[in-house]
Amino acid sequence: MKSVIIGTAGHIDHGKTTLVKALTGIDADRLEEEKRRGITIDLGFAHLELKAASGEKLRLGFVDVPGHERFVRNMLAGVGGIDLVLLVVAADESIKPQTREHFEICRLLSIPRGIVVITKADLVDEDMLNVAKMEIEEFVRGSFLDAAQSPMVEVSALNGAGLEKLKQEIVRLVAEIPVRSTEAFFRLPMDRVFVMKGFGTVVTGTLIAGKVGKEEEIEILPQRRRARVRGVQVHGSSAEQAIAGQRTALNLAGVEVEDMARGMTLTNPGVLEPTLRLHVQLSLLKSAKPLKDRSRVHLHAFTSETIAEVVLLEENPLKPGATALAELRTSEPVLLLPGDRAILRQFSPVVTIGGVVVLDAFPLHRQKKEARVSFLRGIANGSRQEMLLARIARRESGGLSLAEAIRETGLRPSVLQADSKALAQQKKIVLLGDLMVSAESFTKARERISKTLDAFHKANPLVRGMSKEELRTKAGLRPEVLEELLAHLVREKKAEATGELVRLAGRGVELKDDEAKAKNQIENAFASAGLKVPTMKEVLAKLPVDKDRAHKLITLLLRDRILIKLTDDLVFHQTALQELRRIMTEYKTRSAKIDVPTFKELTGISRKYAIPLLEYLDNQRVTRRVGDERVIL
What we know:
CATH superfamily of the largest domain: P-loop containing nucleotide triphosphate hydrolases
CATH class of the largest domain: Alpha Beta
Strand content: 25-35%
């Protein structure tokens, strides 16, 4: 069964609610005040099932919106998820202010299809009806409601005239509407929340993407609360699941009605994230005033409303009727994805001034304006693969992870993985597990690693290599990118890696004659001393090289673990410490414990050496201190 959402639009008292009731038999005015005053104040809902020419069942959900100018914000909460609009114009009044505003809102939201419904046709004569039709035709000319592509139907909700023809046109247009994707992450912008006796918290909304079923866990954004779906209703009937394009009610467990409000969005847990910054393509109405940089506006997106600051990225001020790139900085987090549309209303007085298409919900920080504008222009009309490649490329050698790509695009992993594999086969990106790096950035990063290593060797000729962590930090790379680049360089014999040290091929330590002699002199001085080592100052004083080179030689010996530093003053040769381990192993055959005096006597050293050596043995888990003694492990 195909499900489609139909919304009404039009001026107050032009018969929107009466028309919905005539079509469905359901009075969409549910509030006592609405019935008393005879006007629609908040959103109303109804449903109808029809049959297509093919025999397929069509499930139509109707969203009835208020027409009074004071309730346009409520109208905006209902119009965001509709597939087809009924622009309702009364024959006896024709085009009125809210007709214009509602029409502009529908146009800015790019609602693809619609029907102009001329109501109260029974109240006017044929001449007046023809005048109204001409005025309406002129008003919608060139738009998605142009008479050349969209029907215009005259009806009377009171005597039923024209209703069957209207249903036929609805069926015809509904057949052209593509089925919404149920494979996307589910999103339900909430428009109502209430308590139902015996059930608890119930929320309703138009399911704009994906599907949701009973017993599933959901997340409520931007509050990041989790809840469980206890029950599902579609158009008032219980169901196992709801799919995109359906009016949906969810009975939730784990949240109270006080925790919920219109404007929140229900979605799959732990996948999508709200944002405070949006890059958009902004279109200003011809009737609006010029929009200045840093203007504050009301942002209406699906059922949410918040204040936003507009940062113009191109023309300033933006002229009426113009379209340009802009950044929106919202006062509260919003959940929007690329391709979503929203409405801007002037901060004061509150009137509709334009609309936006979301291009990027997670702009990079500290990106140059020229690069930002170029990126946004590139993704504005690109294919899905082209947009993914642009998102990967803008992160340069840092790459884009699968989780980041999901957050930025709202696409499922399977879709992104298929696109990334296609890009990899085209040699446009390099895949490193779940990380995607553009081929150009990967090549540049490789060159940067070689240059970084070369500079290190020149500055440190006596050091065997650069640590991977230091190289990663200086090159500004993710660990997985560095490892893959090093693997490439090693395979091509352009670099060598030993443990955590990396060097360019053939760039090991090269010592001059006096340096080699000094290195051997240092090593012999500590090796021959055993545990009664000299001070570093005493050793350095006897060397045939200057102080700076002598310190580099010491560093080289320490890196190679030939010498081991216990304190700033005490350095031991590795053979002396190995002999100490042997002594302790042999002593353990006589006693499992040893104290400081016994250790001094056993090794023939003073307390100056004994305490640091015992602490070294503790760290090496040869011994464990218990009180004043050590247990030999």
